[in-house]
User: Fold this.
Amino acid sequence: MSEDIELIMDDTNDLMKKAVTHLESELIKIRAGKANPQMLDGIIVDYYGNATPINQVANISVMDARTLTVQPWEKNMLQPIERAITAANIGINPQNDGNIIRLFLPPLTEERRRELVKRANAEGESARVAIRNIRREAIEQIKKLQKEGLSEDETKDAEKDVQELTDKFIGLVDKHLATKEKEIMAV
Assistant:
């Protein structure tokens, strides 16, 4: 295998890994009935005029299986944090007692579980599309190398390798989705 093809394969592998890693981080944000501090990742709080991630202005911890607590480092940040959580529309109403914000996760209804599964599947489809786009770009690069003198056999082998890599990563996406769906649907 030529050095150029090896480079393309390495880049393709790295990009596909990143797509799967991104899917994993998005699936963590979809709650499955258990409290998880990472559910609040991506919530941005107005910290004295600066958009700041919530975990940089407060300590987030799990009190029990269905309760998260958000302890701001500055007491005057309670209101902005509460507003940010409400605005994030994650399906949880914050309860502010003047010192700490508690997030009680309501039990999931069958309908809500189905919505969460749909959301997880949408994230999975985004990951699949990203992986297929990476495959397309890799094959375009290989075809470009063929025009520059790469033999037809090497081109076919490289394209086959890219397809095998794609199948492997799409299988990984499907596995993550099946696990998440099972987790969400478990009562």
In short: The CA atoms of residues 47 and 77 lie 8 Å apart. The first strand starts at residue 44 and ends at 47.
